[in-house]
Specification:
- The protein is mainly alpha-helical.
- The protein has a domain of about 150 residues.
- It has 7 helices and 3 strands; from the N terminus they run E-H-E-E-H-H-H-H-H-H.
- Helix 2 runs parallel beside helix 5, helix 3 packs parallel to helix 6 and helix 5 runs parallel beside helix 7.
- The radius of gyration is 19 Å and the shape is elongated.
Length: about 230
């Protein structure tokens, strides 16, 4: 089982004094797989670095009812931040992430995309200003890594099962539309916010695509052997 590492885990693995024993490998994933020209292959700005990290063999399954362990926002707050605005942003983002996980669990595609579109409308002006601050971008990215890890723990259980076509179609649509939808929903935000939102989403979309291909291959093999 693979899992997306948190930014903290990735940085720690890079600083490890004994890299020969590390189980992580560095890869890159295209944020925009439809390249306009061959020259774009050498352009690193369209790639997201991916540090693969694997869970220990003795780790148990994720309890889907556990509360999402999002990073503490206090570690990222700029000087002079209103404590009430920080608490509000943390609570609203946690609610946002929890609702997204529920949409994946119950296959609610329309609500899933609507949550991204409507999120900024739930923020007051002080909270909106804090959300767009450059210091908060790493916190947003860290929260989204935790969010998509939880989603993948749900989706990964479907890879070798017989999955109804509507569920497969929903997952395919999410894989194809998520990054462009986030880009459109948060287009009024600074580039650092867009980057923090897009990078984890691009990795998640790629993992969904892999899971769908594994599911298709598994059933094709089963049909051939039966």
């Amino acid at each position: 089982r693979g899992s997306l590492p948190s930014p903290q885990e990735a940085s720690q693995s890079q600083k490890s004094p004994n890299p020969a024993k590390s189980s992580s490998r560095s890869h890159s994933l295209y944020n925009q797989p439809d390249l306009a020209s061959i020259d774009n292959i050498r352009n690193t700005s369209t790639k997201t670095e991916l540090e693969l990290s694997f869970l220990p063999a003795d780790s148990g399954p994720v309890d889907q009812h556990d509360i999402l362990a999002l990073p503490a926002i206090e570690l990222y707050l700029p000087q002079g931040t209103d404590p009430d605005a920080a608490k509000s942003l943390s609570a609203l983002y946690r609610s946002h992430c929890t609702s997204l996980v529920e949409c994946i669990r119950y296959c609610r595609e329309k609500t899933f995309f609507h949550l991204y579109t409507s999120f900024q409308g739930t923020l007051t002006m002080p909270v909106q200003k804090l959300f767009g601050h450059a210091a908060i971008a790493p916190w947003i990215e860290g929260c989204d890594y935790v969010l998509y890890q939880r989603m993948m723990s749900i989706i990964s259980g479907l890879t070798l099962q017989v999955v109804p076509k509507p569920v497969l179609d929903t997952l395919r649509n999410i894989s194809e539309r998520l990054v462009p939808h986030i880009r459109e929903s948060f287009q009024g935000q600074p580039q650092h916010v867009l980057s923090a939102k897009e990078a984890p989403a691009a990795l998640f979309s790629g993992l969904i695509d892999r899971a769908l291909r594994v599911n298709l291959t598994a059933h094709a093999a089963a049909n051939m052997l039966s």
